[in-house]
From TrEMBL, chains A, B:
Encoding gene per record: cofE
Species this protein is from: Halomarina rubra
Binding site for a divalent metal cation 2: 149, 206
GO molecular function: coenzyme F420-0:L-glutamate ligase activity; coenzyme F420-1:gamma-L-glutamate ligase activity; GTP binding; metal ion binding
Subunit structure of this chain's protein: Homodimer.
Lineage of origin: Archaea, Methanobacteriati, Methanobacteriota, Stenosarchaea group, Halobacteria
Pathway: Cofactor biosynthesis; coenzyme F420 biosynthesis
Location of the Coenzyme F420:L-glutamate ligase-like domain: 9-218
Official protein name in the record: Coenzyme F420:L-glutamate ligase
The protein's role, per its UniProt record: Catalyzes the GTP-dependent successive addition of two or more gamma-linked L-glutamates to the L-lactyl phosphodiester of 7,8-didemethyl-8-hydroxy-5-deazariboflavin (F420-0) to form coenzyme F420-0-glutamyl-glutamate (F420-2) or polyglutamated F420 derivatives.
Cofactor binding comment, as recorded: Monovalent cation. The ion could be potassium.
GO annotation terms (biological process): F420-0 metabolic process
Pfam families, per the entry: F420_ligase
Keyword Ligase: yes
Enzyme Commission number(s) of this protein: 6.3.2.31, 6.3.2.34
Named cofactor requirement(s): K(+); Mg(2+); Mn(2+)
């Protein structure tokens, strides 16, 4: 399996044709998977926001005040407003906002970025990353994974995850298969789109690399079942239930 | 960047020399990273347990009874006993046991496996995966990442993560670097060992593949700071605090 980033990718602007940018830079093969940083999907879709265009409501103002009191740092209530608008539901509101995005992904500040956004204050995540992946998949003919970099419980730091995918299942389903000794497997559902996103992030990086597109060549999904069930629903997510029941002591 | 699994790896037994198994199968290069599934590290270290040798204490019996009542499935109190012995601290005890292993990793059932373990009932995680990685790194001369497959909050399924590493920092520290427009970065600490573990899991798989060793060739860490701070401490982990404060309603 080989991974490489596409080079000489321009600054992406609203309306840009991402499939054409890719096709101009690589002859994709049938066994390739294309990983795309959500940043450029959002830019192509015009998902920028300027804070001057935002009016904070009561809830956003209350959240920003509380975060200001906790952290001792100025918090813009208009930013909290945008996070609320991008969220189905809040999982935690202090000491940082953890929420479920419209498409079911749980992340800090609804995944809104301030880096690598030249022409506006904020860049929202794509409205429907799987829809975006589907369009790119149709145009390019290979599986597409839309990635973001985000944190996770229990561990420091961040890593690449999939937020949308098309042309392949999200997970390899190992149920019904056996281990080396014919016993049932403990691990049954392997989130390969997350593993692909993590791998591609090793090349995309977080800074000024200019490498939002990474091709994974000769990844072998293998002869397994597949599943597209990546984001847990509330009823099925005890950790989220525990967090929503909890109140930050401060 | 290229990844390949070593082939013709034998069944690993207590006392086996993993470095020799690797060296017999590949000429490692200076820019390689070796990812090793923890299963074979544990096997070489003899970390197997037979339930007949375990006596469950009161706490393990209480936990197993509760889990039996909740799930309607028989639960062996001796298994709960082993999980307790492998744990520094429990994060949740129902409806499944989530705990911190001795070396700081939070995972279900202390990461104890029943798959790919021919000669015993259970396989524990390595006692000190970073120590194991250090020994392999000294013998092989390349960075080593010890991996496991485990679940995570908010998402279905499991994926590869690092539980030990040596010869390279756990994370790329992007602090002080800037984005394409000279602005400060939002993502500052990228857990590259987790990203490498996820990538290698795409080739190692969960079943009878027999491929616990994956070489990552030409991964470029780049000119960044590094950090080895991967597992959050209790005081620094709000999600864990919230979970420990929570009581499963059932
Ligand atoms: N060429 C190019 N690279 C970009 C652009 N926007 C972001 N990048 C690069 O894409 C990669 C990922 O950027 P990042 O901000 O971490 O995106 P995210 O993980 O999707 O939030 C980095 O190498 C950035 O330099 C763009 O418009 N053009
Ligand atoms: N050759 C060989 N492969 C093994 C052995 N034990 C496990 N594996 C393989 O190692 C890979 C990872 O196994 P898994 O049970 O998922 O390990 P874990 O992720 O570390 O818990 C799979 O390809 C297994 O078939 C062994 O003793 N010898
Ligand atoms: Mn982002
Ligand atoms: Mn990123
Ligand atoms: Mn395991
Ligand atoms: Mn595994």
């Amino acid at each position: 399996m080989e991974l490489f980033a596409l080079s000489d990718v321009p600054e992406v602007r609203e309306g840009d044709d991402l499939a054409a940018i890719v096709e101009d830079r690589v002859d994709l093969r049938a066994d390739d998977v294309l990983c795309v940083a959500s940043t450029v999907v959002s830019k192509a879709d015009g998902r920028t926001v300027n804070l001057d265009d935002v009016t904070a409501g009561d809830r956003a103002r209350a959240i920003a005040e509380r975060l200001e009191a906790i952290t001792g740092e100025a918090k813009d209530p208009r930013f909290a407003q945008v996070v609320l608008e991008e969220s189905n539901d809040l999982v935690m509101e202090a000491p940082f906002i953890l929420s479920e995005t419209r498409f079911g992904h749980i992340t800090v500040n609804a995944g809104i970025d301030r880096s690598n956004v030249p022409e506006a204050d904020l860049l929202l995540l794509p409205e429907d990353p799987t829809g975006s992946a589907e369009r790119l998949h149709e145009e390019l003919g290979v599986p597409v994974v839309v990635t973001d970099t985000c944190g996770r419980p229990f561990r420091h730091g961040q890593r690449g995850v999939a937020i949308g995918w098309a042309g392949m299942p999200a997970s390899r389903d190992w149920r019904g298969e056996t281990d080396r000794d014919g016993r049932e497997l403990g691990v049954t559902v392997e989130s390969v789109v997350d593993e692909l996103a993590a791998a591609s992030n090793l090349l995309a990086g977080e800074g000024d690399g200019g490498t939002p597109f990474v091709v994974v060549r000769e990844f072998d999904f293998g002869d397994h079942g597949g599943s597209d069930n990546l984001f847990r629903e509330y009823d099925d997510d005890l950790i989220r239930q525990a967090l929503q029941a909890w109140e930050f002591p401060g």
